[in-house]
Amino acid sequence: MNNALARRGFLQGSIAVAALAWSPAARSWVGGQPPGPDTIEIPSLDGELVTDAATREQAADDFGHIVHRAPIAVLVPGSVEDIVKMIHFARAHRIKVAGARGIGASHGTNGQAQVEGGVVIDMSALDQIHEIDGDSALVDAGVRWIDLLAQTAPLGKSPPTLTDFIGLSVGGTLSVGGIGGQAFRHGLQVDNVLELEVVTGKGKRVTCSPTEHAELFHAARAGLGQFGIIVRARIKLVDVAPMVRTYTAVYTDLAVLTADQEAAADSGQFDYVEGSAFWAGAGWQYQIELAKYYDPAAPPDDAALLAGLHALPGTQAATDASYFDFANRLAPLLGFLESIGAMALPHPWIDQFVPGSSVVPFVESVLSQITPADTGNGPILIYPFNRSKLTAPFLRVPDEPRIYLLAILRFTVPPIPEVVAAQIAQNRAFFDANTAIGGKLYPIDSVPMSRDDWEAHFEPYWDGFEDAKDRFDPDFVLTPGQGIF
Fold it and tell me: Is residue 35 very low, low, confident or very high in pLDDT (cuts 50, 70, 90)?
């Protein structure tokens, strides 16, 4: 069932619990009966403002399954104008608003897209791909990257950078950054957006780009939803070959792995560079993952491509897949994890940007403090990208030419509060250690952050971040879940 059909069924089933008016005294919605003398009728909507307990409970969750903040309503917009109207209404009546990819499916693990006592906007209701031309695609924010790629890949086109899991939404990843194995060459997803349409915290619908309303454009990219709700985006497209050959090899020395990753990235021969740590019985080992896009008529020269690697002898392997299947390579694993209930476990993730000059001792220190039991056998990613490719000012990274992502993608086993709390405390210790060497957080994580932490995170742009908030969301209507203000 496609999103449009699913949404129509959802709305038809929710008419009995759709809100009709707002009671300022009770600070609650009134539904199922005409507005009374002490209530304020909500604006006419193309979609629905839904208030039943089951929907609100669903919106009080996210991928992390750790923080639960219940909204008082969920807006399922039938149009962008519904979002404009709701933000105007919320601003007038001091109601907080957060936009989420879908109920419970936001790109966050610690309540970032939740809102206690406010309104969650189910952005998956806006899922239209408006146009695809030779160099770009214009899409609604609720479009998933997988759905966009399904249309562009047959044309030999793709967004330059894709997250490893492409089931995320365009608006969701553009609000935080959107990192993947192509970032060393193309930057993050926020570096490959040409234009945005944003509904600000003032309820203004603005089209912005590097040359039009540039301040909003630069604020909204990786702006964590603090200045506006991204409702539409024009995404850059690049030519891609139809096939991908993926190479892997194993290392026992992290310094050798990172040196090979950097050499591969600098060589210009590969289209994708990642790596990971895995437990090998008595300790951690490492795997490099490199990919080359190619046309079947001209397959890669494996020996030439791998000649510079210093991996363990006999561990090199290569696999071929279509470009789309390569981009969607996690689908079978995620399907299996879903089937055994693992996706319902808490996910206290920590993703950090580590200075390249310190990556080896820092990662070795982190890994010396954890075992597979501490991660629930979740993956640990380690890979480089280049600061010179980054263009979004509020995507904060170390002030070095080479930056590494270190992502510990935990599952909590057993899923009990004490274990979750211990993992989050360990996340905070890793965050403090990384901050001390000039590192930054990729803010989708389960790390408790204070106001001072956020100020330090955004330095030297904190004043600009505050100024943008004052300009675009002066009443602090939007996205309180991050806890920044």
Answer: low
